[in-house]
From TrEMBL, chains A, B, C, D:
Protein name: NADP-dependent alcohol dehydrogenase, putative
Species classification: Eukaryota, Amoebozoa, Evosea, Archamoebae, Mastigamoebida
PANTHER family: NADP-DEPENDENT ISOPROPANOL DEHYDROGENASE, ZINC-TYPE ALCOHOL DEHYDROGENASE-LIKE
Keyword Metal-binding: yes
Enzyme Commission numbers on file: 1.1.1.2
Single GO molecular function: alcohol dehydrogenase (NADP+) activity
Organism in which the protein naturally occurs: Entamoeba dispar (strain ATCC PRA-260 / SAW760)
Amino acid sequence: MEILKFQGWSFSEIFHVNEADANLALLPRDIKAEDAVMLSDMVTTGFHGAELANIKLGDTVCVIGIGPVGLMSVAGANHLGAGRIFAVGSRKHCCDIAMEYGATDIINYKNGDIVEQILKATDGKGVDKVVIAGGDVHTFAQAVKMIKPGSDIGNVNYLGEGDNIDIPRSEWGVGMGHKHIHGGLTPGGRVRMEKLASLISTGKLDTSKLITHRFEGLEKVEDALMLMKNKPADLIKPVVRIHYDDEDTLH
Amino acid sequence: MEILKFQGWSFSEIFHVNEADANLALLPRDIKAEDAVMLSDMVTTGFHGAELANIKLGDTVCVIGIGPVGLMSVAGANHLGAGRIFAVGSRKHCCDIAMEYGATDIINYKNGDIVEQILKATDGKGVDKVVIAGGDVHTFAQAVKMIKPGSDIGNVNYLGEGDNIDIPRSEWGVGMGHKHIHGGLTPGGRVRMEKLASLISTGKLDTSKLITHRFEGLEKVEDALMLMKNKPADLIKPVVRIHYDDEDTLH
Amino acid sequence: MEILKFQGWSFSEIFHVNEADANLALLPRDIKAEDAVMLSDMVTTGFHGAELANIKLGDTVCVIGIGPVGLMSVAGANHLGAGRIFAVGSRKHCCDIAMEYGATDIINYKNGDIVEQILKATDGKGVDKVVIAGGDVHTFAQAVKMIKPGSDIGNVNYLGEGDNIDIPRSEWGVGMGHKHIHGGLTPGGRVRMEKLASLISTGKLDTSKLITHRFEGLEKVEDALMLMKNKPADLIKPVVRIHYDDEDTLH
Amino acid sequence: MEILKFQGWSFSEIFHVNEADANLALLPRDIKAEDAVMLSDMVTTGFHGAELANIKLGDTVCVIGIGPVGLMSVAGANHLGAGRIFAVGSRKHCCDIAMEYGATDIINYKNGDIVEQILKATDGKGVDKVVIAGGDVHTFAQAVKMIKPGSDIGNVNYLGEGDNIDIPRSEWGVGMGHKHIHGGLTPGGRVRMEKLASLISTGKLDTSKLITHRFEGLEKVEDALMLMKNKPADLIKPVVRIHYDDEDTLH
């Protein structure tokens, strides 16, 4: 029997979901549960960053932040037709994976100001679109400074601190530069999940690259959470697999 | 003989225009030259603010600033299908004209914080869209605070001073509120002018309401500019009419 | 007490609506019930025709068919910023009301081929957009012939008969004319109804012009339906008002 | 010295191009001239089919016709985020290349009705989007029959014969199915070419797969044209390389 893939995952074995037809999608048999669990959070959020940045065929894109969401923004930018993709990060493993997901250039912020690095790499032209998937309230100023007029900045990063996001007046074209600023939460739902799942089924997206640590059993949730808190250099995302008596329901 | 309406107006009797087919539009005989002169600056800019704010049928809109551009943003919002339109201003003449162009409510910033006034008038819900056609770098914070999630802010105001535009982190939904921020220069060109001109020809837009002072002769340009500098309470826009020997060319 | 306005109206006094939050909207106290009943069918459908036709500021538009839905397409085109609006019809009362809703020209198909009339009236250029709110499967060929390249045709007419809609190959630009063809059912729901209702509340849309015949009591539904079947020349739309014991619930 | 890549190619050694800034793009040094020549016709046209079909992340797409333009529609659909891609064709070489460009399923019209094959392969659901890059005026009826409601059909095929394109009334949702029909000529220009070229430079698009026959010298144009007329089974696209005295201008 097939089981259902849930839009939201929780730390329990049984839970209630409203509006099943709108919010539950069948997990295709050819997708592993641990790969699928990336769809309802990392993939849809990261891809939404690329959608918010309004990426078009051949755009030069900068993705700032390449944790698991940012890596999916790189993949999303690539799936939406981006040409050159700058990925801003520093951890080697994440940079390597970013290149596998479609990045063409790595910008390491430890090597100097990222705006200067981007402008130098683009002969002073800057990029067409920016996806913000990391950083803080000050990251937007960098995005505005590295992007061309007539462009879009898409943010999916949760901004936890700071009073204001500062948009530099002059580089924002004194209000007239058509540098559009977007920030949003990803859409969810059954249809969205089915569509994203098809990218895995067809072999066009491999979410297993995001999984660096695997745990077995509900009781390991705490270990996994501690791992996410401590952030070892080789971590992208841990997965906890919960066992069921009727194991074949998980195919 | 018909003459041409120029996309950009200049303070001279003869000037050169590149790409005539793209940049010059025939002035329809039924439009007065002084009304038409509003098209290539006030109308297209103000309307573009409404376009940038992505106004849809029945939206509740706030237009901040009701000088000549802002008044055209009110008219533009109305032409794009807005329902309730709050116009933020204080000068009586501008407020009266705003109501004639489609505003349904006047918000006078001299009566208190405009965000509080808007929230009170909308039962705490806020507005669907904001057009910024006046104010300064601090106006964006007000816009973000008065607008619902899933919304658009369109700016056409030239921001002449200040280092940064401050976007309040919390009210911007911690980066996830889908409050899109746009700022741009109006598109121009022949087709745009022809389309906007048709709104005058069909009687759907009356730009003569913008003209509060009329001058005759090129030598009066200085008087008109001084008027714009001194900004008397009853001023919206002055027009200087230049005389030609072959007067019927100006029909 | 306020009562609810229902998205769909039915011929009964009590009925069940799923998903109340999504499908029921409060009827504002300043809107009469008989005016509001137009919102959930005529207004939203007619306006959707204008939305499907992708009407932009200053567009020249042709609305084919000016029964109650088509009249709302005329109004919708006007609310979306159309300049010149050709309304195609023949009944005097409908033509008069079309002019009140924003039409600038009436095209009577009894006076000859409507394509020729439109081309003549536009100096051979044709129109920017067409809304189809009447006619049959052959109406699309007329729309394609009267529209410019780079344009949109929006249909909201139910096509009850005929095997095929014929799109003329040559006039459709041999497949390359960017004459986009859309046909759809209107969106509904609470938010849509609230937004359209605001157009009535603000005095920007007067649906009472659509109501030509009024009946009192549920038992008059049959009379009203017969009227719609017989279509007298002065009919646009009949309304049947149902009485409630607690009359003030209908304010 | 770098030379210029021309938007339109002609059968002569010298020719005039208007508006150089808008119409000429620099050929990046890392792109071979024969690969680049595909950009200004096959790539931009095929990709535009995918753009017209409004392809979104995870869409199931059918591309009808997989000659050189159709193959680029397959690639374009893939670059825009399609999941499952059905490619309709019969010649083995083209089918093989289609799979390399992102197709996941081949539909051979010699094996029966393509609509039935598509519906069977999708459990009766049909596809989200259709790109028409081959066939004739009757192909649109197939597209309408195989596509879901709420969808887009994008045509880039030149329709050389037939009076009408027949859209089946019933399967088109009696005018209300939101099955949008688009047909257009590709946009061109410098920016477009630069963006598409970046897909080659970054290794994300390999146009050399389209080139099955190579000729040397302007005098071979006739041979190449005869090849295109005779269409051998292994032909996708021939290229004629013209020699210049100053050979290094072609890097």
